[in-house]
């Protein structure tokens, strides 16, 4: 080898070692290439569509033997709609062949969709948008080459050839699936396959949102919304165990929100930040990390306390928000904010004890005593009822009357998690299982592979599936519904805050509850309801805990438990 080669190699080594920042930041994400599973629709002159369903290798070649051809005659446009089988986060890789006349790029239009109908819509039609992610765009494709484009959440892709009197040769149209390549350490399997699929779908929904940061949605709301993180982090702890995306996201929320600001402009979201840190500590017991939060935590506690009136009534400013379905009910919001103030300050006092911060502990505990002297009216709001039950502002049995009315009617994908938790606190585990089957299960019945930003049982009558073009006379469950900021196709069909049943099933059916920091103690109290058996795993810092519960002929439950020796298991 020449001296020139060695000289260049030495320079590269020195450059990387002495100037690591210049090399760039390494991504924690993996890219996987996925072929479509079917051609859902096509129009115009198109041949050999089965070629696009083959795995592919990402490489153009000179044989041009296996090619899908789109041909425009005059102004007629040839178009194709591809289904990748499940919701994905990422983009698209298009590999082209040889057409004539050669070397002339072809102009195409690409539309991503979380539903088949979204991929067919025009921008502005029924809320179709390029907000957060450009999902409808035009580009040029090279002759005998490759293009990698796009960044969105999608399952369906429509491609239109735009050039008149032209051919487009497609060798491959593969999705570029971008995700964290991490194992599913937690698991759930029971005698009800519907519940099994719901658990897995919730886990997958959050997994897709575990990008550089923990997002709420992969098409829209590709942001760190702190309140939305709470159900997501519960799922992360249940399924994946420790992952750096959680502290990274919590720190981002803190760093971009100097006090006296509220995270995301919402007082409850700053409260959720406190609760999230306690949950994270209970699972992972990282005291050094918790100590990093102490200055912000103590100041935030004082800020929350300053918004409590002398009569113990909350007076939170900023955006007074629980979730979207309750956003037009001021009484419910007030009751929820009263409960959230209690929850967050009670939690802050526990954190202060861990941090040996007596001043913050005392400030929080005194405020909680005042807050509990004022009792708001929950009315018929399931959001308010859930939060008041969870914070002992109202008896769980009283809240359960509100929560059980109409079954899953008036549930929401975000606060549904807390509604389920309150039903469990009241001992209504069977009712909660029925809601999970009927509410989250209904999304699966409509073709969902991830859970949605919102869902309403009133949308169900005469609704078409999301994995088909809407038949004549049917309602478009995506384009025709939605509300507030998620009207029509702007509605996100992969929203991490909707994953609540995943952690709920592990906590209440498998009965696994962390009762000492770092999972050093876990209490197991199974509730099978109408299930014959349930089994699964749960990640701890010391390894995976395994449980299996089987209902005996006399109704008693036989439990088999195998956990790491460092974890104390308490059976109830």
Could you describe the 3D structure shown?
With 572 residues, the chain is α+β, with helices and mostly antiparallel strands. It folds into 2 domains: 150 residues, Sandwich (Jelly Rolls); 293 residues, Glycosyltransferase (Alpha/alpha barrel). Helix content is 34%, strand content 21%. It contains 16 helices and 16 strands. Strands 1, 2, 3, 4, 5, 6, 7, 8 and 9 form a 9-stranded antiparallel beta sheet that branches. A 4-stranded antiparallel beta sheet has the order 10-13-14-15. The protein is elongated and about 80 Å long. About 1% of the residues have low confidence.
Structure, briefly:
This is Alpha-L-rhamnosidase. The protein is α+β, with helices and mostly antiparallel strands and 572 residues long.
What would CATH call the architecture of the largest domain? Alpha/alpha barrel
Quickly count the domains: 2
Going by helix content, strand content and strand pairing, the class is: alpha+beta
The major pleated sheet works out as: 9 strands, antiparallel
Instruction: Note the total helix count.
Output: 16
Overall residue-averaged pLDDT value: 95
CATH topology of the largest domain: Glycosyltransferase
Question: In percent terms, what proportion of residues is strand?
Answer: 15-25%
Round the Cα radius of gyration to an integer and report it: 26 Å
Would you count the extended β strands for me?
16
Helix content estimate: 25-40%
Low-confidence stretches: 11-17
Span between termini: 72 Å
């Amino acid at each position: 080898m020449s001296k020139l080669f060695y000289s260049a190699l030495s320079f590269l080594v020195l450059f990387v070692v002495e100037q690591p920042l210049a090399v760039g930041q390494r991504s924690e994400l993996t890219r996987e290439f996925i072929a479509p599973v079917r051609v859902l629709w096509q129009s115009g002159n198109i041949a050999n569509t089965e070629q696009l369903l083959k795995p592919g290798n990402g490489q153009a070649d000179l044989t041009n033997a296996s090619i899908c051809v789109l041909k425009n005659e005059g102004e007629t446009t040839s178009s194709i709609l591809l289904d990748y089988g499940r919701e994905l986060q990422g983009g698209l890789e298009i590999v082209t062949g040889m057409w004539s006349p050669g070397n002339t790029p072809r102009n195409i239009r690409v539309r991503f969709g979380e539903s088949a109908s979204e991929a067919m819509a025009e921008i502005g039609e029924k809320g179709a948008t390029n907000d957060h992610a450009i999902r409808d765009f035009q580009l040029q494709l090279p002759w005998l080459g490759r293009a990698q484009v796009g960044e969105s959440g999608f399952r369906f892709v429509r491609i239109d050839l735009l050039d008149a009197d032209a051919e487009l040769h497609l060798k491959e149209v593969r999705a570029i699936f971008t995700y964290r390549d991490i194992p599913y350490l937690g698991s759930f399997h029971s005698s009800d396959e519907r519940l099994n699929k719901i658990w897995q779908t919730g886990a997958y929904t959050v997994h897709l949102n575990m990008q550089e940061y923990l997002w709420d949605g992969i098409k829209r709301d590709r942001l760190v919304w702190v309140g939305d993180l709470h159900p997501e982090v519960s799922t992360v702890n249940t399924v994946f165990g420790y992952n750096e995306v959680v502290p990274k996201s919590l720190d981002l929320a803190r760093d971009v929100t100097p006090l006296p600001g509220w995270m995301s402009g919402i007082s409850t979201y700053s409260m959720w930040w406190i609760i999230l840190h306690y949950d994270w500590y209970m699972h992972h017991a990282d005291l050094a990390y918790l100590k990093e939060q102490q200055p912000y935590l103590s100041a935030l506690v004082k800020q929350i306390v300053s918004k409590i009136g002398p009569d113990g009534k909350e007076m939170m400013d900023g955006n007074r928000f629980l979730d979207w379905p309750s956003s037009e009910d001021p009484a419910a919001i007030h009751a929820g904010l009263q409960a959230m103030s209690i929850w967050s300050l009670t939690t802050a006092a526990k954190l202060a004890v861990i941090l040996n911060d007596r001043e913050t502990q005392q400030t929080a505990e005194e405020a909680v005593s005042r807050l509990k002297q004022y009792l708001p009216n929950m009315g018929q709001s399931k959001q308010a009822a859930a939060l008041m039950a969870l914070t002992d502002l109202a008896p769980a049995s009283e809240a359960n009357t509100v929560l059980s009315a109409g079954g899953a009617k008036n549930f929401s994908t975000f606060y549904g998690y807390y509604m389920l938790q309150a039903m469990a606190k009241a001992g209504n585990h069977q009712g909660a299982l029925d809601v999970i089957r009927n509410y989250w299960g209904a999304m699966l019945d409509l073709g969902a592979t991830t859970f949605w930003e919102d869902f309403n049982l009133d949308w169900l009558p005469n609704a078409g599936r999301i994995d088909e073009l809407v038949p004549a006379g049917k309602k478009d469950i995506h384009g025709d519904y939605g509300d507030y900021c998620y009207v029509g196709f702007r509605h996100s069909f992969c929203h991490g805050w909707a994953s609540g049943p995943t952690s709920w099933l592990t906590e209440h059916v498998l009965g696994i509850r962390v009762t000492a920091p770092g999972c050093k103690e876990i209490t197991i109290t199974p509730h099978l309801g109408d299930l014959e058996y349930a089994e699964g795993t749960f990640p701890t810092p010391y390894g995976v805990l395994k449980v299996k519960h089987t209902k005996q002929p006399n109704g008693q439950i036989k439990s088999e438990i195998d956990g790491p020796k460092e974890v104390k298991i308490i059976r109830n």
